[in-house]
Amino acid sequence: RIIRSTNxxxxxxxxxxxxxxxxxxxxxxxxxxxxxxxxLPANAAALEMSATAWRLGLSPYPTKQAPSVESVASAASVSxxxxxxxxxxxxxxxxxxxxxxxxxxxxVVELPLNSSQVDCDDGPCTLRxxxxxxxxxxxxxxxxxxxxxxxxxxNVSADGxxxxxEFDHLTDFASFMGxxxxxxxxxxxxxxxxxxxxxxxx
Length: 202
Fold this sequence. Notes:
Helix content: under 10%
Shape: globular
Number of helices: 2
Order of helices and strands: EEHEEEEEEEEEEEEEEEH
Number of strands: 17
Largest sheet: 10 strands, antiparallel
Radius of gyration: 20 Å
Low-confidence stretches: 67-76, 184-197
Structural class: mainly beta
């Protein structure tokens, strides 16, 4: 069942493990989730999947983040900004939410992109202006967004309408746009320059 509104799309599905695993569920325009095999418990007769897709800028979550050294060391100084809507996903059995994490095969999450973010004119669709999409999850313990170290960088879908991210666990997902990791230059070392002028021979 899917319920659509101005701000969010809600999707629920009750089915068996065999039917849910390997299936792709569309939550809203450009928002989809593919459940991997062996992600759900084998002894559950009926599993309920619940998903919420928030429109960009309309979710109750913060829209900016500064990736920490713990999340991605190479992006420690990169400033990013929320560039997709937020997708929340959970599975439950008899009303009790399942804790799903550390999967060998990840969930594939498609997050809707704005057409202004993508260039599809020459060959495969790519992000404009040499930007980078950081697949992220909301860390409830820290109450902040974090780049998933187990996730690959987000790739644009073939039709350019969504960003494909992979996660080995469930929570709230989004992508943040910024410069590629390592693209920012280190600040100039003026003390190093003065030392060189005083002693050019080293």
